[in-house]
Specification:
The complex is a heterodimer of chains A (about 250) and B (about 325). Chain A has about 250 residues and is α/β, with parallel strands linked by helices. Chain A contains 7 helices and 13 strands. Chain A has a 9-stranded mixed beta sheet. A two-stranded antiparallel ribbon of chain A has the order 2-3. Chain B has 2 domains: about 180 residues, Rossmann fold; about 120 residues, Rossmann fold, CATH 3.40.50. Chain B has 8 helices and 17 strands. In chain B, strands 9-8-7-10-6-1-4-5-11 form a 9-stranded mixed beta sheet, with helices on both faces. In chain B, helix 3 packs parallel to helix 4 and helix 5 packs parallel to helix 8. The complex binds flavin-adenine dinucleotide (FAD) and adenosine monophosphate.
Amino acid sequence: MNIAVCVKQIPDQSIPGKLDPGTHNLVRDGKLILDDSDSYGVEMALQLVDRAGGGEVILISMAPNGEVSGLRTALAMGADKAVLVSDPSFSGADALTTAKALAAAIRRNPFDLVMAATESTDGYTGTVPVQVAEILDIPSVSFAKKVDIEDGVLKVQRQTESGYDEVECPLPALVSVTAGVVEPRYPSFKGIMAAKSKPVDVVDAAGLGIGPISPNQEVISVRAAEERASGTVVVDEGEAYQQVVEFLETLKII
Amino acid sequence: MSLSKIWVFVEPSESGVSSTSLELISAASNFATTVEAFGYGLGSETAQPLGDHGASKLVLATGLDGILAGTAVAAVMAKRIPSDAPDAVFFGSTPEGRDAAARLSAKLDLPVLTNVVNLVEDGGSLTSEHAIFGGSQIVSAKFTSSGPGIFVIRAKSFAPESRGGAAAVVEEVNVGDIGSAGKAKIIQSHTEARSGPKLDEAPVVVSGGRGLGQQDSYQMIEELARLLNGAPGASRAIVDAGWVPYSYQVGQTGKTVKPSVYIACGISGATQHMVGMKGAKNIIAINKDADAPIFSIADLGIVGDVHKVLPKLIEAIKSKG
Ligand SMILES: Cc1cc2nc3c(=O)[nH]c(=O)nc-3n(C[C@H](O)[C@H](O)[C@H](O)COP(=O)(O)OP(=O)(O)OC[C@H]3O[C@@H](n4cnc5c(N)ncnc54)[C@H](O)[C@@H]3O)c2cc1C
Ligand SMILES: Nc1ncnc2c1ncn2[C@@H]1O[C@H](COP(=O)(O)O)[C@@H](O)[C@H]1O
């Protein structure tokens, strides 16, 4: 069982984001880290390969400047190797271009399953995984909250607006997971040391056979949104509930 | 109206056609002379509201036989685009809507803009607006490549508007064999029971977050919601923890709500939560941390412990009868 896991490396979300004033692209300088959303896919893949009794977990990432810090974190969790797509021409790539690059990178190794997160923390288009599946011509199951493989069949509980669906699908397939699917492990010290020597295959657009890309969309302007004025803040000394009661009364809710 | 045709992906709900679908049909009718709906699982009675909101036609995918709906409808759309080119295609930011948009985009090499919160017509094409950095900034974007652009639009971005149109003409299309994409199949659907008003339509929403400390405390949220004729909601933290089902989730990946009153209990106010509830007319927040971001958008903020404030509040409302 070989599983390719798409992992995005993103700016540290505790630092407020910025847009480049010229290109309006998200500024992605500084160290990138593993997107939390993708740590669930990595964990799920490690568990599935373990249960299958063998195989590899191969990380797939596209990031500028040959960035590998986030990949090292996932390798330290236990992934076997990584493919990194890095090419200046992909900076500011839209979702479909990203999907094309990821799909080409996934094809570099044999795989039974592709994993991704339902949406990334910094891009949150939520379309990249299923676009990857279409390009690879495989079935996809998005919004997975539970994933199993039995006798070569993928079994997923997929969140729906009103509950969940049990979905089955032959391999190869792609599954995009939600955050509740598993509890990601912390890398051990041994894992961190081992990660340093695990192979990272770095490829550019030409290496993937992807020609020059032309942008499909552009940002025209950025403006500040209307601010919502903050109201009254009361520290509870035991009676603050009355303020809520009064507020609900003025609104004629009670 | 200088666009000639827009297609809209429409979805069923317990009450017929989903409210988001009608919002998108209304939005499309503002920009294009012809609006056509593409959907699945809809009864013939939905032709009336769809037509009333501006759709002349409903292309209904049938014979799905367990194929995921977004995938199936995308296949139906993809077959027709070359001959029947619309100027744009609208999808809701729902699980099926995103699946469909992604499949269609990759199938026909069409670009997609997601998380759209508003659209503006500009010289015969559409410019989309997106709220970023927790809704503090608005980015305007447009497609530069040719071919119909795909817009994935957040719920409650447009108001549904009845236009008095005649019922949409229904055309059924059997999905048939759609290749490998159709191999993922629903074996069984599970509906999680909910009582009271629908989360995205309720006039009052009471939501709980990780600050509740434990699953049992969610009972307070349900009780308060019931007393106020509202719906209980949740942050993603407690959905992921398994305390409540996903259908309770408010935010980026969950429901967008615009109630008259939103009461956030033990919720920090992460940007992804706020995009789903910032549109509430009035916001009340109860959080023990005076620096919690939720207070920056609350009309009334109570710095306090939910376990102390909520029981008293519930008692006070009960005693008012
Ligand atoms: C791509 C992506 C999509 C996401 N989509 C969503 C989404 O749709 N919806 C969503 O909600 N989140 C979403 N999130 C997650 C979001 O970033 C936050 O992690 C989440 O909203 C936090 O939930 P919370 O406020 O309940 O928990 P926390 O952030 O842990 O906050 C708990 C709060 O409770 C307070 N508290 C603790 N004890 C008490 C007490 N006794 N009394 C009162 N207050 C107390 C604390 O001060 C704290 O502010 C998404 C994240 C990503 C990356
Ligand atoms: N640049 C990237 N590198 C690796 N994986 C990515 C990249 N962009 C998106 N993905 C995958 O697709 C998921 C959804 O991303 P998005 O469509 O941006 O919300 C992410 O969580 C990743 O699993």
